[in-house]
Design goal:
The chain is an alpha/beta fold and 320 residues long. It contains eleven helices and 14 strands. Strand 13 and strand 14 form a beta hairpin. Helix 4 packs parallel to helix 5. The protein starts with a strand and ends in a 5-residue tail after the last helix. Bound molecules: adenosine-5-diphosphoribose. The site of adenosine-5-diphosphoribose has 28 residues, from helix 1 and helix 4.
């Protein structure tokens, strides 16, 4: 069967970081695709030359031709534009929708058997559009957001409690936007519900609320500090964990933007939910019990996603 093949559509900040991580982990051979000429080829050369130092075997190539993604097992999509300070993810919709159309067609015509992970924002709408444009089955197209949002939540909690991040299991549901729903009732510190842990540690509930709020705005905080782009290390490593779950048939339960039909009262929508990822792609969605408040927060979030889908349909009649 030979090595696995990982195609990265978009070779910017996240794309380059993805390539480095995938090579270091020897996940397979890597193709960096971009519309910018020379850039993916240059990054591929630079990254290839990490091999002798880091001791990995991976063939890394750069291309501007979709034909080179043929046979890809996993495709990770970051093509498009990132936010600038002051922009919301939703402000990217018009530009990135057109990019998803080109990418979806490129995948459909060249690598229709791949497992596709979308990172491009606004995430929940773009993964939906990419699925529509590519025509791939819903279980083979998924969005990366929840792993990142949970990692942000876990980081802040670990800092607050002064415990290892390894012992924090943070839970975030809903869309990848300021309406996302960090669910404290399912967030634990080594199995201890976070609100109980806060009491043990003498941490006020208002601090947890502040951390929830910081998590919701976690991407924007980084955009503001960087000044000319958005986060890339943690988004890249989050998507790699999803790719590993697929390639290794790990059956991990990861929060992902998955297609939900029936569960959570949803009728065919991509939104962040706990998802089993294995060799079958997104194999199952886990429907957890939510409190009335959590339910209504999730509704606000899914309504926001639905609004974006309507906007997409207005911009591209082939989606309507
Ligand atoms: N096809 C392929 N690549 C494209 C296309 C296209 N139609 N349009 C733009 N690109 C490329 C750009 O040339 C650029 O190299 O996508 C790359 C995006 O890289 P960056 O600008 O560095 O953005 P990055 O930080 O990687 O974020 C990418 O992920 O988190 C989201 O909001 C973020 O939507 C953004 C995406």
């Amino acid at each position: 069967a030979g090595r696995k093949k990982i195609a990265l559509i978009g070779s910017g900040m996240i794309g380059g970081t993805l390539a480095h991580l995938a090579a270091k982990k020897e996940m397979g051979d890597i193709v960096l695709f971009d519309i910018a000429e020379g850039m993916p080829q240059g990054k591929a050369l630079d990254l290839s030359q990490c091999g002798p130092v880091e001791g990995f075997d991976a063939k890394i190539t750069g291309t501007n031709d979709y034909a080179d993604i043929a046979g890809a097992d996993v495709i990770i999509v970051t093509a498009g534009v990132p936010r600038k300070p002051g922009m919301s993810r939703d402000d990217l919709l018009g530009i990135n929708l057109k990019v998803m159309k080109a990418v979806g067609e490129g995948i459909k015509n060249n690598a229709p058997d791949a497992f596709v992970i979308c990172i491009t924002n606004p995430l929940d709408a773009m993964v939906w559009a990419l699925r529509e444009f590519s025509g791939l089955p819903h279980n083979k197209v998924v969005g990366m957001a929840g792993v990142l949002d949970s990692a942000r939540f876990a980081t802040f909690l670990a800092w607050e409690f002064d415990v290892s991040v390894k012992d924090v299991n943070a839970f975030v549901l809903g869309g990848h936007g300021d309406t996302m729903v960090p669910v404290t009732s399912y967030t634990t510190i080594n199995g201890i519900p976070v609100n109980d842990f806060a009491k043990i540690k003498g941490v006020d509930q208002s601090r947890i609320d502040e951390i929830v709020d910081r998590t919701r705005k976690g991407g924007g905080e980084i955009v503001g500090l960087l000044g000319n782009g958005s986060a890339y290390y943690a988004p890249a490593t989050s998507a790699i964990s999803m790719a590993e779950a697929y390639l290794g048939d790990q059956k991990r339960i990861l929060p992902c933007a998955s297609y939900v039909e029936g569960k959570y009262g949803l009728d065919g929508l991509y939104v962040g939910v706990p998802t089993v990822i294995g060799a079958g792609g997104t194999e199952d969605v886990i429907e957890i019990e939510l409190s009335d408040e959590e339910k209504s927060n999730l509704k606000v979030s899914t309504d926001a996603v639905e609004e974006l889908l309507e906007a997409c349909k207005g911009l591209d009649s082939s989606l309507a």
